[in-house]
Amino acid sequence: MLRPQLSVIIPAYNEESRLPRTLRHVLAYLSSKPYHSEVLVVDDGSTDGTAEVVERLSGQEAMLHLERHPDHANHGKGAAVKLGMLAARGEFRLFMDADNSTTVEQIEGFWPRFEEGCDVVVGSRAVAGAIVPVRQPKYREMAGRFGNWIIRACAVPGILDTQVGFKMFTRGGAEMIFPRVTIERWGFDIEVLAIARLHKLRICEVPIRWCNAPGSKVGMGSYLEVLSEVWRIRRNMKAGLYV
């Protein structure tokens, strides 16, 4: 079977309202490209019609597939991305958010970095050239800046924006990183980058256009959860769990 050039992984939890628009956008973009692609939506234990949305569209689009946890339970975004990355077959593997806050065509700026030898390319709101036309509420921006300072100091120095849900990996990079991922919820982004650094993979940040989408599931409790997981990552690194 032909290996896809690109796999797009979309973790989804109770996204039946936002997901159809995102999928139409992604499928239209990929259909216009000469390379073979696949789209994997990972239903993270949704209690609404998320799975039914994907199943209905997959009957019309051969590149679209539904993935689910064996127990159909909610495990967290990190667990959903890990499942999708390990189920994917693409030479390059992107995960993006179901709310389409960063649109799929922005990978056009990623390909040159892979050609330069990057293993992981990270969409960033914090590097020159990034555009954020619709911003988060001020309290979330302040919490994010404080959290990023701690993350850089304790886990992944030099990465200016670890939390955007738009990251792309070579097949080799994904297969090195994701079997070692242990964090199932919000802090998995940091763990992914820490594992990549530990294994001397080259990480590049690329500016993106990011719009804050209404209906975000990231609350203040999520920021505190991420910071607690930073310490867990440090402990794991010291214990040699990522080797």
Summarize the model shown.
This protein is of the alpha/beta class and 243 residues long. It contains 8 helices and 9 strands.
Your description of this structure?
The protein has 243 residues and is of the alpha/beta class. α2 links the parallel β2 and β3. α5 runs parallel beside α8 and α7 runs parallel beside α8. The longest helix is centred in the C-terminal third of the chain and has 19 residues. It is globular, with a radius of gyration of 17 Å.
Hey, roughly how much beta strand do the residues contain? 15-25%
Strand arrangement within the widest β-sheet reads 3-2-1-4-7-5-8
State the shape: globular
**Low confidence ranges:** none
Task: Report the C-alpha radius of gyration, rounded.
Answer: 17 Å
**N-to-C SSE series?**
EHEHEHEHEEHEHHEEH
If helices are DSSP runs of H or I spanning 4 or more residues, what is the number of helices?
8
- The total tally of domains equals 2
Distance between the amino and carboxyl termini: 32 Å
Number of extended strands: 9
Average pLDDT, all residues: 90
Secondary-structure content class: alpha/beta
Largest sheet: 7 strands, mixed
How much helix, percentage-wise, in residues? 25-40%
